[in-house]
Write a structure and sequence with these properties.
Elements lengths: L16 H16 L6 H24 L11
Length: 73
């Protein structure tokens, strides 16, 4: 997969919007095959980057890092 996308999760640090955007941009470039889309594809490309970044933000806001799950045995 995308080895050059840096890991954003680290203790005590929530990724910035810029970090999420940059990772989303790398991901969309990788899966679309476009480093820089044509004008005809620019809107779709930018929408995909925004949606991936938003999904990343949702993920980070939902993660429970360091929390132990409580299960009864």
């Amino acid at each position: 997969m995308c080895r050059n996308i840096k890991r954003l999760r680290s203790p005590g640090h929530s990724p910035t919007d810029q970090e999420l955007h940059d990772a989303a941009l790398q991901f969309v470039r990788k899966i679309s095959g476009f480093n820089s889309p044509s004008r005809a594809n620019q809107e779709a490309f930018e929408a995909a980057v925004s949606q991936v970044a938003a999904a990343g933000r949702t993920l980070f806001e939902s993660l429970q890092i360091g929390a132990r799950s409580s299960s009864t045995a």
